[in-house]
């Protein structure tokens, strides 16, 4: 069910938004509705508990600790140099 809503916005913002909506062949009302729906759905999904990691993925742990300053690009470059000597 559609309900009317009145908003007070800067005229320049409204004009630019109307141009944007028109260039994308959408009404400004539908564009704002889509944006608000996206915001509220994202907010609801963020409130869910953390995603549970499957036992299979957990079994893939190697126990190797990688230093925080590890330069993987440099290490890979060195590996390739050795491989193709």
Structural notes for this entry:
This protein has 85 residues and is mainly α. The chain has one domain (11-83). 58% of the residues lie in helices and 0% in strands. The mean pLDDT is 87.
A few lines on this structure:
With 85 residues, this protein is mostly helical.
Shape: elongated
What does the radius of gyration come to? 25 Å
Mean pLDDT across all amino acids = 87
* Helix content, binned percent: 55-70%
The number of domains = 1
- Tell me the series of helices and strands, N- to C-terminal: HHHH
Strand content: under 5%
Structural class: mainly alpha
Mind describing the biggest β-sheet? Answer: none
In total, the number of strands is 0
Which properties best describe this structure?
58% helix; single chain; mainly alpha; 4 helices; 85 residues
How are the elements arranged and paired?
Blueprint: H1 11-23, H2 28-46, H3 55-59, H4 72-83
């Amino acid at each position: 069910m559609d309900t009317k809503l009145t908003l007070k916005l800067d005229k320049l913002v409204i004009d630019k938004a109307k141009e944007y909506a028109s260039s994308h062949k959408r009404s400004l009302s539908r564009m704002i509705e889509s944006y608000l729906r996206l915001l509220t759905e994202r907010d609801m999904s963020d409130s869910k508990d953390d995603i549970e990691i499957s036992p299979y993925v957990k079994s893939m742990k190697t126990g190797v600790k990688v230093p925080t300053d590890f330069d993987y690009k440099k290490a890979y470059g060195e590996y390739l140099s050795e491989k193709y000597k």
